[in-house]
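Quick illustration for those who missed Monday's session on complexes.
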Amino acid sequence: MNIIVTKNFEQTCERAACMIADVIRQKPDARLGLATGSTAQGVYPHLVKANRVGKLNFSRVSTINLDEYVGLAPDHPQSYRRFMDENLFDQVNIDKSNTMVAKGTGDIEENVRAFREALAEKPIDVQLLGIGVDGHVGFNEPGEVLYDGAHVAELDESTIDANARFFATRDGVPTRALSMGMGDILRAKKLILLATGESKAAAMKGLLLNEELDVQNPATLVKMHPDVTVIIDRALAEDIGYCG
Ligand code: GLP
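Prediction with GLP bound:
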């Protein structure tokens, strides 16, 4: 694992955006695996800015997202499709028909099938990842069994608690989501995992301070990947006692 410790979260986001931009410059028709959440949200403005000043071209780029809530229509303010449209797709010169966020409403089994088909179409050149408080990536929650492919995940209580800040009430948080599987994530050619904040310290300790692959901390499986970069800020590194 390549581990980068930055001065602060802003620098973490800049580094991640720079790595994604490099992939696009080397391969203008790259397929990006994208993530939502407040951590990933810090990365997109840097990509938007590079696009606006003519330094990054999305015209041939395609994307596929990690996950989507079951029960939220694409235009729901908290749907991950809406998040992606607002934070990236509507602000750059991407062809929206080349963007894929699984659909959370309608026939969910059919949507999982469509998600699996989309994943099989073309490899992901770079996958951006955040991490949940419980170590989930995408919505691969801790458990005795982890999944290879796209599936419907039951969200852990701690995940519902963490995501409640985006909804008017905790009861409004969906309890299920469509998610790429751990296998899908590990099949991406390059992984970039970002973390910030002390709530992520326990999960990040498992990732950075030992060699265990722990199904109760799914993010630890990225240790198996041959090209993974983990970017954290100094404050989080100090919290977990990581000294490089
Ligand atoms: C959600 C997403 C994850 C994301 C996680 C952390 O659960 N499904 O992909 O990594 O939130 O979000 P945040 O960065 O807001 O802490």
